[in-house]
Amino acid sequence: MFQQTHAQKRNKKDKENSSKEVTATPKKDKEKTIKDLVKSSKEIDGLFKIYQDTITGSIQMLISEDQIGKEYIYFSQIADGVLDVGRNRGSYRGSKVFKINKYFNNIEFVTQNTSFYFDPNNPLSKSKDANVSEGNMASLEIEAQDKEKGLYLIKAGNIFLSETLSQIKPASRPGASSNEFKLGNLDKAKTKINSIKNYPENTNLEVEYVYSSPSVSNGGSNALADSRNVSIKVYHTLMAMPEDDYQPRFDDPRVGYFTTEVNDQTSTSSTPYRDLIHRWNLVKKDPEAAISEPVKPITWWIENSTPLEWRETIKNAVLQWNVAFEKAGFKNAMEVKVQPDDATWDAGDIRYNVLRWTSSPTPPFGGYGPSFVNPRTGEILGADIMLEFAHFTNRVFYDKIYDLASSVEEPVDNSNNYKSDQMYCSLGQRLQNETMFASAVASATGATDFEMERLKKESMMALIMHEVGHTLGLNHNMKASYLYSPEQLADADFIKGKCLTASVMDYAALNITRDRSKQGQYDDVAVGPYDIWAIQLGYTPFKSEDERQALLNESTKPEHIFGNDADDMRSPGKAIDPRVNVSDQSNDQIKWAIDRIELSNDLMKDAKAKFTKNGQSYQELRRVYYLLSGQQGSAANTISRFIGGVYVDRAMAGQEGATQPYTPVSLKDQKRAMAALSKYVFAPNAFDAPNDLYNYLAMQRRGQEFFRGPEDPKIHSQVLAYQKNVLNHLLHYNTLQRITDSELYGNEYSLSSFMTDLNNAIFKTDINGNVNSFRQNLQLEYTNMLIDMLTGKQSDKYDFNAKSMALYNLKTIRTMAIPSGNISSKAHKEHLRTLIDNALKEIK
Ligand SMILES: [Zn+2]
Fold first, then answer.
1. What is the pTM of this model?
2. If we measure between CA atoms, which residue out of 402, 429, 361, 358 comes closest to residue 84?
């Protein structure tokens, strides 16, 4: 909460003023002047004049009469933190508008609500404050004033040294384990101001918050020197409201910009949105010219921490966006400079947009491109890009490989308590995984050093273009990879010099051909056609609304396909259009995914020979094994999304080239997906690896690390996890409900056919004979899932049609599972029968 409780405020004041209050009674006689109170302080002039006491370091702030009643922008950024609590260097914490008010003898800092619009000509606008809460962050007593000059002095420690302006310490998550690492309490005695930088347009403070706890049960990661005393450094920026001629631009569902959502409360429309897209204030030097340089270009600084050998590639990647800006009428809209080694500014200075590098102990992302905006207009005021060195190495984060394959969504931090512009981008992490896979394929098939180098360069370019795209206002486009056919991607000449998809804003898989002689470009080296169109929509100085509408109507062109994170199907049961997905490629994803699985299988056969090096441990082989099976798991998810899938078209009614909004996936493709899952995911030999490979999947010992758990490879549970991911989608209540509903509007793969096919895929080939250990796991897991549909915690979410089919399948399994085959298979079948018999008794 921003509002300090009264009691907190009291406490703080009591402490600060305790010595003063004793002598404060005869105050009337000798009222202190501003001059008296700042006499031992250093004056730091800027937007808000600050005085810092040269002995105690305490700060006071001067507010002038003309600042009262005015709006300002507040923005904060983590200067340095710890990942244990999700506070990492460079992460932006959103911006908000606040107003300075004077209430009797107090100065108030009040957050403004920017979510609503009232047409000022509508009488309703008179009630615009009804049921809308402002946030009074702080109310501070005026310590001294100069009536003539209209100046008020307040103690600023109250604002900056506590969490007044924004919440720093994360709230504990509901359901969090009690042994999770937690920050102690804010230790006001240790919390301090590290620097004050004041400019005419903004006031910046770096504050080091210290959280202390006398004892901790979980010591956190080794990034913490002392887990009882943890520092989080935060930049606070107070900014004058820009007074320029910036024209807000409104959002459209057909293109993907970050937005600040605003509701028009005086509109009668069913879509009363005035959502502001986030964009830079780019203005032509010569407004009449078709193509002009901007008055002020968007300047990027390559931080001096950037490895030398990558600077040229990075610069080249940023400048690729100029191709898009030229189509929007701007020449040299982007420029790139290198931060000198002796620069006196650092990346925390919001006046500089910086491409930054870190090598964090546990990297949170591989690239992150946040920007901060004026919430009143959507104008982007600053941006940075954070890059993680780890993602250009072969360091493996096993837990993350699993996360990526299991399509877990990235957590979104909402602890800011205000509308946040930030979003997490996991492209770097995904790209590292893909690049490692591509390198494994390339090196196993004898690629030259030159080719390996090219692969690295291309993925670096793709990553930088993507993150820069975020800072220009673009959000993800997870449909972009649907542009080209597998044949086009395997045509080196066709793909040369292009973006491999419609947009660099996708999380597309790398282009790796199974036929190695056809290998062309691995990743994007240019921005895509969608990117160019999107930049045109966001930045062209349109002469009229008709001109903008005409360009928007080009959304039906195949190269302008768009669907963002909310539309993508990475998580089981989420979204509906299988074309919108992550870690996939081409306009035939089923074919592509099969190809990827076969490529992994090919490599698995020779892995031991190719990835064992004399004189080295087997860690590298283990890494490759996890990488390959992870690819299989991820490709399996891609295929599964076609079952029950519905294609979405977001074109407006009457738009040229538009189709109906909802079209179910054809019976042919759903059947094709089912056949592929049956063969590559559920079949008894689906995850076969040469048996002698398992003897070599050894981790290199380090200290006492195996105390954490036995080191042997957990082969069965890993395979089952991949199979379960697929079943989690296929048997999700959303998927089953959609199959039944869409039978009404074109779906020809009925629920009964699908559920019968699935049952057969999991039982038919071996239920009458020996069932191997992988299949025993799969069959029991699946049977338990059917039982859960009927009696589990979530059973009330399933419709009756789905429940009936679950019951029907259980009875079929009961009939099929006649004990036969070897002892292990007999035991397995008895187990199945017992589970089903017990479940049937519970069903009412
Ligand atoms: Zn991204």
1. 0.90
2. 361
